[in-house]
Amino acid sequence: MARRILVTGGAGFIGSNFVHYLVANTDDSVTVLDKFTYAGNEASLAGLPEDRVTVVHGDICDAELVDRLIAESDVVVHYAAESHNDNSLHDPRPFLDTNIIGTYTLIEAARRHEKRFHHISTDEVYGDLELDDPERFTDQTPYNPSSPYSSTKAGSDLLVRAWVRSFGLQATISNCSNNYGPRQHVEKFIPRQITNILVGDRPKLYGEGLNVRDWIHADDHSSAVLRIVEAGRIGETYLIGADGERNNKDVLETILELMGQPRDAYEHVVDRPGHDLRYAIDASKLRDELGWAPAYQDFDRGLADTIAWYRENEPWWRPQKDATEAKYREQGQ
Ligand code: NAD
Ligand code: DAU
């Protein structure tokens, strides 16, 4: 039976990819609740059928609005967040408001209306790993966040866990690794480098670029979230990852090569303070218990598709580019 799904942050990178995924793969109707911060983009929802997708401009901290929208929904999938580590190091306050108070506002309404709630989180709550550590993150790894961003995400996860235990909230949580794909803001690593090359600027690598991220395509994140919403056990945490560990230098050199540039045509810039060294996800609980598997097995192929998307969608990213680079320049990055 078709569900009514409330997607918070549905105009952002991963949220909008999830909305497109739901429209293509289910009969559900979707309401997007998004504040349209600098990271929300109307164009990311263009072309979706109006009889399936409703867009509400609003703040997840607005208790009255949130209460009404949750009362009208069957399931809430909560993506809305301040999401960028570098921003959180320069202006942490919006991270506390949206990630902590916003999540609190949503779970209070979800418990009042007894609605299923899925909380989207990040592997960064677990801190970082040494390059040679044979262990990867599991749902048993202790929380140890490094940045204002990741500590507010950790705080929001703990609120959801407490609401499950103390108030019987029907919630699940997922912690995913680094996503790539279409519609990602140009402040983030992969789109920043692709669009720098497209505008004729040199890509920028923080420090030596030996930091490792565990890349997953946004569509694989979406398929995993849908599987958890449909079959995940209430109160459980599922880690989402696709065995995609690569260091930043390697990813950047691959982008340069795929775009026909010399592999060394980039600059080293000042490193991120407190820069996490390595993330790595063990997704065996999700794979074994819920039978999920990623569709994108070949990172270079996914990267080539992503480069093609940015080449073909300059009107989507061009308006963000100059302001984003001006901010980075001020920070020496
Ligand atoms: P994003 O910054 O691209 O999008 C965030 C969206 O939330 C934007 O549309 C923004 O307008 C909206 N928003 C912000 N504050 C809001 C508020 N107060 N009320 C309503 N809407 C608000 O972020 P993203 O990269 O798509 O990340 C989405 C979620 O996935 C976040 O919870 C993030 O922590 C999580 N996550 C991201 C990654 C990644 O690699 N990007 C990996 C794992 C988990
Ligand atoms: O692991 C999941 C997390 O992945 C999510 O929770 C975050 O919302 C998401 O932004 C992402 O966080 P990162 O900090 O890993 O992503 P970012 O794209 O900012 O940076 C990826 C790596 O690239 C990181 O090691 C920093 C480096 N970097 C980044 C930029 C913007 C550079 O070397 N140069 C750059 O210009």
What does this molecule look like?
This protein has 333 residues and is an alpha/beta fold. It has a domain at 4-179 and 216-240: NAD(P)-binding Rossmann-like Domain (Rossmann fold, 3-Layer(aba) Sandwich). 43% of the residues lie in helices and 16% in strands. The chain contains eleven helices and 13 strands. Strands 3-2-1-4-5-6-11 form a seven-stranded parallel β-sheet, with helices on both faces. A two-stranded parallel ribbon has the order 7-10. It has a two-stranded parallel sheet with strand order 8-13. The longest helix is centred in the first third of the chain and has 20 residues, at 93-112. It is globular, with a radius of gyration of 19 Å. The N and C termini lie far apart (49 Å). The structure holds nicotinamide-adenine-dinucleotide and 2'deoxy-thymidine-5'-diphospho-alpha-D-glucose. 2'deoxy-thymidine-5'-diphospho-alpha-D-glucose (DAU) binds at residues 83-85, 122-124, 177-178, 188-189, 192, 204-206, 209, 211, 213, 248, 272, 279.
In short:
The protein is of the alpha/beta class and 333 residues long. The chain is built from 11 helices and 13 strands.
List keywords for this structure.
single chain; 11 helices; 7-stranded parallel beta sheet; alpha/beta; Rossmann fold; binds nicotinamide-adenine-dinucleotide; 333 residues
Q: Which structural class should the secondary elements be placed in?
A: alpha/beta
Q: Give the name of the CATH architecture of the domain at 4-179 and 216-240.
A: 3-Layer(aba) Sandwich
Unreliable parts: none
What small ligands are held by the chains?
A: nicotinamide-adenine-dinucleotide, 2'deoxy-thymidine-5'-diphospho-alpha-D-glucose
Mean pLDDT across all residues, rounded?
Answer: 98
Under CATH, the homologous superfamily of the domain at 4-179 and 216-240 reads NAD(P)-binding Rossmann-like Domain
Strand proportion: 15-25%
Task: Give the distance, in angstroms, between the N- and C-terminal Cα atoms.
Answer: 49 Å
The CATH class name of the domain at 4-179 and 216-240 reads: Alpha Beta
Helix content: 40-55%
How many DSSP-defined strands? Answer: 13
How are the strands of the biggest sheet laid out side by side? 3-2-1-4-5-6-11
For the sheet with most strands, the description reads: 7 strands, parallel
Shape descriptor reads globular
The CATH topology label of the domain at 4-179 and 216-240 is Rossmann fold
Over the alpha carbons, how many angstroms does the gyration radius reach? 19 Å
What is the chain-wise order of helices and strands?
Answer: EHEEHEHHEHEEHEEEHEEHEHHH
